[in-house]
Amino acid sequence: MTAPDVLDAARAWAAGDPDPETRAELEAAIAAAEAGDELAVAAVTDAFRGRLQFGTAGLRGAIGAGPNRMNRVVVQQASAGLAAFLVGREPHPSIVIGWDGRRGSEEFARDAAEVFAGAGVRAILLPRLLPTPVTAFAVRHLGASAGVMVTASHNPPADNGYKVYLGGADEGSQIVPPVDGEIAERIVEAAAVPVADYPRGEPEVAGEGVWEAYVAATAAIGLPTDQDAGSALTVVYTPLHGVGLETVEAVLAEAGFPPVIVVPEQAEPDGAFPTVAFPNPEEPGALDLAMALATERGADLILANDPDADRLAVAVPDAAAPSGWRMLTGNEVGLLLGWDAARAARGRGVLAASIVSSPGLGTIAEAHGLRFVQTLTGFKWVSRVPDLTFGFEEALGYLVNPGTVRDKDGVSALVRVLTLAVELHERGSSLTEELLALAGEFGAFESGQVSVRVTDLARIPATMAALRATPPAELAGSAVLAADDLSLPEHGEIGDILRFTLDDGSRVMVRPSGTEPKVKVYIDAMSAEGAPAQRVRAARARVAAIADAVRPLLEA
């Protein structure tokens, strides 16, 4: 599309944009582009160079005008396409719509609901902004055909998204192929009609009973009646400017826990996320305020949800850390929760993790007579494992209650982590000491990650292509025994992932991020020699050495 064509398309979009904010932003950009501003020309071109792609994560992108951005037009087109898919699938479809506290979320949710209702789909709006797991729960609880959650989870503040669940046989799981492609086709068809011509209807609004049922079901997996809540730990909690606080406090109160100490600057939903560079608890600095408050209050534990509360971060006291606190990795929390689930499973059920998550869960499963399943990356696959008892992915996603929610759930995971921490505390132990005990019983499984964030998206496929063409022969003094391209049929066409197996048993996985402009490397090492602390030190040292060897390969 030439520059004049782009500007014509932008002018046409502005004329029909129902959102005065994005319309004004676009009109200003058009005027600047017409005046010769090269940055404005590039911005408008990028916004109109194609459509925001609908896939297994639904839609996710920066908010702004144009088909390649998240906005009210794109959301209505997506809703019309999804409605057409549902109407063609069953005679009386229904859908639940939830939203978080990001910019535009409530407007997007209400636009979607009106379009669904106008297309003949029973549309049920949740009563207010709530965590993503509540929407996933509501699909099953209400017996809905589908669900939509308007959220960009832990993406940067400029982003928003549109996440789709299916009910019925899919049990409220996220969509997977080929359904995503079928819905995408319907969206393209819907986009050929001006959104102003879409029929609209009045959606229903769910009562508080849906949220209350989620709170009750989640509280039920918490503190057992024979545990003394009075001896519970002092806990600092932050929702990171997201929507987790109300639900977390209600669940903990119903489960019998004392109140947590909340980081006041981050307590209320705020789509600008003013106290963090990125609203992702994995990012450096995201938990600084929580750590400072925990130190001031003499806390035993820090718990944090991401903005839509489907992920959980855990930090523990560590005198060796500069802040006095160490954030546990997603794999460490996953192994703790996996062990917690395995000991209660009594030999029945399945433990599952995505292929880039710690293989240590497989060792725990085997020791407890359980099956272990590795899935494709993405929680949409973890949640679909038959007979699932517990599943996780290293990116702070955990599913501890598959009978209630078929997606990662940071609230229920918080309840189980806190319950486990209280149990250990009563025995004179802690999460940190239990990780050492697991290292003694199963070996020390340590993991690390290297990420390179890019501004030029072309760098991502270029980096993957270079590693495919010339894989490393050795990393950190260990020979690379196998370099496997997991996108190939002989490896199951798992996805755009490269796996390097080293002669010391370590594993390196490289893939593009599914939600952010990053190349991500996952490193796993294991040690079973010496005392538990020695095993942990050896495995961590190996991970660090491999990370140092990998970075130059990504930055070349």
UniProtKB/TrEMBL annotation:
List the Gene3D superfamilies.
Alpha-D-Glucose-1,6-Bisphosphate, subunit A, domain 3, Alpha-D-phosphohexomutase, C-terminal domain
InterPro entries assigned to the protein according to its UniProt record, in alphabetical order: A-D-PHexomutase_a/b/a-I, A-D-PHexomutase_a/b/a-I/II/III, A-D-PHexomutase_a/b/a-II, A-D-PHexomutase_a/b/a-III, A-D-PHexomutase_C, A-D-PHexomutase_C_sf, A-D-PHexomutase_CS, Alpha-D-phosphohexomutase_SF
Cofactor(s) for this protein?
Mg(2+)
Alphabetical list of PROSITE patterns matching this protein: PGM_PMM
For this entry, list what GO says about its biological process.
Answer: carbohydrate metabolic process; purine ribonucleoside salvage
Which CDD domains does this one have?
A: PGM2
Q: Where is the Alpha-D-phosphohexomutase C-terminal domain?
A: 452-534
Gene Ontology MF terms in the entry: magnesium ion binding; phosphopentomutase activity
Q: Which residues form the Alpha-D-phosphohexomutase alpha/beta/alpha domain?
A: 52-188, 225-315, 330-435
Assigned keywords, A-Z: Isomerase, Magnesium, Metal-binding, Phosphoprotein
Q: Which PANTHER family match?
A: PHOSPHOGLUCOMUTASE 2B-RELATED, PHOSPHOMANNOMUTASE 45A
Q: Record's family?
A: Belongs to the phosphohexose mutase family.
Protein name, UniProt field: Phosphomannomutase
Q: Which organism is it from?
A: Agrococcus jenensis
Upper classification of the source organism reads:
Bacteria, Bacillati, Actinomycetota, Actinomycetes, Micrococcales
